[in-house]
Specification:
The complex is a heterodimer of chains A (259) and B (387).
Chain A (H helix, E strand, L loop, with lengths): L4 E10 L2 E11 L4 E5 L6 H7 L10 E9 L2 E2 L7 H7 E4 L11 H13 L4 H14 L3 H4 L12 H14 L4 E5 L7 H14 L4 E5 L3 H7 L2 E7 L6 E8 H6 L4 H11 L1
Parallel strand pairs in A: 3-8, 3-9, 6-7, 7-8
Antiparallel strand pairs in A: 1-2, 1-4, 4-5, 9-10
Helix pairs in contact in A: 3-4, 3-6, 4-6
Chain B lengths: L5 H13 L5 H15 L10 H15 L25 H38 L10 E4 L2 E4 L2 H32 L2 H16 L2 H26 L3 H4 L8 H25 L3 H9 L4 H30 L2 H6 L17 H7 L7 H31 L5
Antiparallel strand pairs in B: 1-2
Classes of the chains: A alpha/beta (259), B mainly alpha (387).
The structure holds adenosine-5'-triphosphate and magnesium ion (MG).
Chain lengths: 259, 387
């Protein structure tokens, strides 16, 4: 079930280096939110704090709160493993497990979470996830072939299938199309439009047109200055951000990007 | 793997190459760039294969060139491409060197095999008992009676024992160093393990026989009482059993297996590790999903290097194992391995016939090593398309 996410006073560190400062936002359930902004401004960093992936980097830490339907995922006593099971993630580079078959890749998360699970049940989930990821038709006769043997676009859809197989509440995507050709990109954008019926989706993208095409809300991040931490400049309806932004910096960035 | 789309890229290059509409010049740059681009293409390929692949792929490209294409040097820039058929000097030298090195090893192995065969076959033919099954060993000239069975058995049992003890331990240590321990602990542990590799085997031998042996008696007793299987049955030596030898060998091969496992575990691609984390894996599940599958082939290679050392180890085994008058399959019995037997019998190498008996034993060790390595290759390659 899709959930609401709120970030409150987020300060995000790599060791002593403050990468992103004082970020606040609310993301509605069943919406698609795009994070845009120049390289190095902290989009990935913010995204990764939303499912506690930030802390797998040695020395990395987070101050502030991330509320998932009101519950702070950073509260002491909350298991990051449990958080990641409810908030799935898709990465910039497709990263299927190279030693696993297509089937096992999709089933991997499920096997972790529910231990022993009946084969028939597993089959059903694998098929459903691959269908949702719009990949079933292309792979149904080679489920036992290695996942790494697919094309880049197919691999990325495989990773999406793997992420949704465990039925998360939220799906985070960090530039999921940046390594893909236009056709695969379209396929994934279509997929995102369908998936938002069931998930809350946050997507980082450098492609303005893409943000405009698929998201309802857009957050513009920027560096406060040279050597300064990144910040959230503004967040608004995508339409507004692209046509009539409040902040001058947003306007400059967007007009620069569109020429 | 992420490089998976490279071959497609190359394929499309060569298709473009034969399209006359593209003309000769882009093609030329493709050949020129192609040589460079090709090198990293097979990430998993063994080093010696690379130059061959390089030449092999460049040739068909050149051959596929439309005959009406202008000579590639016509591009004007000397940096672009080399004329068809001409291989760069650097490539040639590299090819010659690598081929030479690989060839040298092959020739060496063939010569060793040839030597072993020539020297041992006459003695094996003269053997009054069955060389493969007999448990006797008295290669007296004129009355050659020697069988390899007990030596081979002891060699194999002691090495397997060492592997059983060392490989899981090594994997554990390597995982600890690479994924569990904080850096401040991981480093010293890694150094300590590496130091084990620097201790000469004679020290291991003396230590194993004098210091370790008495401490193993208790464990031997416990295992012995477990029961009836022949492997545990006899206890005809107080110390210096195969078990004793196996334990010391395990310690001796631990560093090499650990070092190689550590190396491959360390290289687990970050993206695979993150994929596991993002799925909600615990630490152990992450290791199981990402680290172990990635390191599998490397661990097997490391284990094989260790096994090679265990099979051939001479002086430590020679010092530790008690000799017995009658062969017993129990690992609590004494015995001799092929290598320790040969070391022990240098005084008998004065006659070609009895020397031949020992060379025959060496031949068996040679074949054994070969078989073991071939088996390991098969295991590593079995799921090759999955890596
Ligand atoms: N693992 C890390 N260790 C230390 N600093 C890091 C690490 N990852 C990112 N940073 C720093 O944090 C800041 C934000 O990086 P981040 O990757 O979030 O940017 P981004 O907006 O996603 O950029 P891009 O659009 O290029 O992906 C940068 O200054 C970067 O150098
Ligand atoms: Mg990023």
């Amino acid at each position: 079930m899709a959930k609401r996410i709120e970030g409150k006073n987020l300060n995000i560190y790599y060791g002593k280096f403050l990468a992103v400062s004082n970020v606040n936002f609310t993301i509605a359930p069943n919406s698609v939110t795009a994070f845009i902004g120049p390289s190095g401004c902290g989009k990935s960093t913010v995204l990764r704090t939303l499912n506690r992936m930030h802390e797998v980097i040695a020395g990395a830490s987070v101050q502030g709160k991330v509320l998932l339907d009101g519950d702070d995922i950073y509260e002491s006593g909350i298991d990051p493993v449990a958080v990641r099971r409810t908030i799935g993630m898709v990465f910039q580079r497709p990263n299927p497990f190279p030693t696993m078959s297509i089937y096992d890749n999709v089933a991997a998360g499920l096997k972790l979470q529910s231990g022993r699970i009946r084969k028939s049940e597993l089959d059903a989930v694998v098929e459903k996830s691959l269908r949702s990821a719009n990949l079933w038709g292309e792979v149904q006769d080679r489920l036992n072939k290695p996942g790494a043997g697919l094309s880049g676009g197919q691999q990325q859809r495989l990773c999406i299938a793997r992420a949704i197989a465990v039925a998360p509440d939220v799906l985070l995507m960090d530039e999921p199309c940046s390594a893909l050709d236009p056709i695969s990109t379209m396929a994934i954008e279509d997929l995102i439009r369908v998936l938002k019926k069931d998930y809350t989706i946050v997507i980082v993208t450098h492609n303005m047109q893409q943000a405009a095409r698929i998201s309802e809300r857009t957050a513009f991040f920027n560096l406060a200055g040279v050597g300064q931490p990144g910040e959230l400049v503004e967040m608004d309806d995508t339409q507004t951000i692209f046509t009539n932004p409040t902040d001058k910096r947003t306007e400059d960035y967007i007009s620069g990007a569109f020429g | 793997m992420a490089d998976g789309d490279l071959p497609t890229d190359l394929a499309s290059r060569s298709t473009n190459g034969v399209t006359p509409a593209r003309g000769g010049n882009p093609f030329a740059s493709r050949i020129g760039g192609g040589g460079v681009g090709l090198q990293p293409a097979p990430p998993a390929a063994a080093a010696p294969v690379q130059p061959a692949a390089l030449v092999g792929s460049a040739e068909p490209l050149a051959a596929a060139a439309p005959s009406d294409a202008p000579p590639v040097t016509g591009a004007g820039s000397p940096a672009l491409g080399t004329p068809k058929g001409k291989v760069r000097l650097g490539d040639r030298v590299l090819l010659a060197l690598t081929t030479g090195a690989a060839g040298f090893v092959v020739v060496l192995v063939v010569l060793v095999a040839f030597f072993l065969l020539v020297k041992s076959v006459p003695s094996i033919l003269d053997d009054k008992v069955n060389f493969l099954t007999s448990t006797e060993w008295s290669p007296t000239p004129g009355n050659l009676r020697f069988g390899i069975a007990p030596l081979l058995y002891t060699t194999v049992v002691i090495s397997i024992l060492a592997m059983i003890l060392a490989v899981p331990t090594a994997i554990g240590i390597a995982l600890f160093i690479t994924h569990y321990a904080p850096k401040s602990i991981a480093r010293p542990v890694a150094y300590a393990i590496d130091l084990l590799a620097a201790i000469p085997s004679i020290i291991y031998g003396i230590w194993g026989a004098r210091v370790l042996a008495p401490h193993l008696v208790g464990a031997q007793h416990a295992l012995y009482h477990l029961g009836g299987v022949p492997l545990f049955k006899d206890r005809n030596v107080p110390t210096g059993s195969l078990f004793n030898g196996g334990v010391v060998l395990a310690i001796m091969i631990l560093p090499i297996v650990t070092a190689i496992s550590r190396d491959v575990f360390e290289r687990t691609p970050r993206e695979n590790i993150e994929a596991a984390w993002a799925l909600g894996a615990t630490k152990w599940e992450m290791v199981r999903l990402a680290v172990l599958p990635y390191g599998r082939a490397g661990v097997i290679s490391g284990a094989m290097l260790g096994l090679g050392r265990a099979l051939g180890e001479t002086i430590a085994v020679f010092l530790i194992l008690s000799k017995v008058s009658h062969f017993s399959p129990s690992m609590f019995s004494g015995g001799e391995t092929i290598a320790s037997k040969i070391a022990n019998s240098a005084s008998e190498f004065n006659d070609p016939a009895s020397t031949g008996a020992y060379i025959a034993a060496g031949l068996v060790l040679f074949v054994l090593t070969f078989v073991v390595n071939a088996a390991a290759r098969t295991i590593v390659n079995r799921r090759k398309d999955f890596t």
